[in-house]
Fold this protein.
Amino acid sequence: MLENYFPILLFILVGLAIGLGPLILGKILSPHKPDVQKNSPYECGFEAFEDARMKFDVRYYLVAILFILFDLEIAFLFPWAVVIQEIGMAGFLAMLLFLFVLVVGFIYEWKKGALEWD
């Protein structure tokens, strides 16, 4: 009865070896030489190794949320473009309405200064 579970056990072991093997080898074989440049902030807007409860500008979050929002909305265009022949004029008009709302939101954010980083 237990021999029926051997392929599952083998699958789990091979998966763990493939997943953890490179991580362990990289940790063992890679050089570890931290310096000031490596520990400096990198595209995050605040120091990397300070108190986790420190306060920083909320505009960083605003720009990140706006990027994610517009990125996800644009991602809806790809499946729409693939099926444009099947959905016909109703789908085309729905996407035009969607893009209109997207552009109006973008213009609103631009006029309010949400995209400014001073």
